[in-house]
Amino acid sequence: TRVAGLTFASITALLLAGCGGGGSGSSSSDGSLTLRVTDAPVDDLHEVWVTFSKVIVQPSDEGLARVEYDIDPPMAIELKALGSGESVALVYDEPLPAGDYSWVRLVVEPYPETFVYKTPDDAIDDIRTMLSCPSCAENQSGLKLNRPFSIAADGVVDYTIDFDLRKSITDPVGQDGYKLRPTLRILETEVASAQFSGAVTDDQSTAGEPIDPSSCAVYVYEGSGITPDDICILDNGNLCPTSGTQPYTAADLEPKATDEYSYLSGYVKEGPYTLALACGEDDADTDDDLVFIGTTSEEALTGENIVDFTISD
Q1: How many CB atoms lie within 10 A of CB 174?
Q2: What integer is the mean pLDDT of 187-194?
């Protein structure tokens, strides 16, 4: 199953979760914490629902207690309803004691609260397919973001969480339903201010042959001069032995007119990137032989950065 990237970025559509726990009061020594969630489109699945129930923040200072924000009631987010950098706030402007912190963990409710609808008819009839995440329970490692950070008194921490579904959702052979494995990165929201966008033209003699644009996505790699490779990640989160550089994020194509498509990536930091149009089925569990078209190195600046591609004979 080919699944598009999910990026927890900041922009629009902020929904405030009811939070308690460690954020129950504030003082002059508190800063504030905001965590946001967003998504890019997901191929082959009609809707993807993930229900979040708690955010846990672990201090590295021995004098600070673990901070827990209960999301009450748990927040069910349909990830495909978000895209192109739109976001939902799991925690918004909640008090967080000044100090140093080691990690953030997101607790996800199990099936049937976290699930997928494979087709529109499944959504109408509420036929849920399991989306399991064995490590996502509160007493497990959960969706853990190993990014140390510090916050000063009256300081603000506003993070973008990149939860890449193209790498994270798999359809294990011989098992019921889909599997969600943590593949996360975290960015400062204000730093992640650039996007890539553009047009993709099907200029083949016979449209859609031999390359079907609907099987393509724009892969974005961090750094210039990168040789693109497919996504291949083991269940333990390590790369497959034969893996090259993995895409930083990815954007699916949207049909606009006959033989014309467009794309818009999630947010990235300013800096050098390599882009390529990757065509073919990319199974995150296997080493796939994709066709890479129009590989180019680009400098991302704040705002939209236009990079067009053409599929030709």
Answers
A1: 4
A2: 68
Beta bridge pairs of residue 306? 197
Q: What's the CA gap between 249 and 202, in Å, rounded?
A: 23
Residue 247 preceded by cis peptide, ω within 30: no
In this predicted model, what pLDDT tens digit does every residue of 26-39 receive, in sequence order?
Answer: 455 677 776 665 44
- Whether residue 149 contacts residue 186, with contact meaning beta carbons closer than 8 Å, is answered with no
Q: Are 65 and 96 in contact (CB under 8 A)?
A: no
When pLDDT is averaged across residues 242-268 and rounded to a whole number, the result is: 87
> 303 near 46, Cβ under 8 Å?
no
Q: How far apart are CA 56 and CA 267, in angstroms?
A: 24
Residue 61: C-alpha distances to residues 24, 101, 181 (Å) = 20, 7, 29
CA-wise closest residue to 108 among 181, 41, 165: 181
How wide is the angle at C-alpha 204 spanned by C-alphas 202 and 205, nearest 5°? 140
pTM: 0.63
Q: Which amino acid is at 123?
A: A
Residue 24 has what pLDDT?
A: 39
Kindly state the DSSP code that residue 246 receives in the 8-state scheme: P
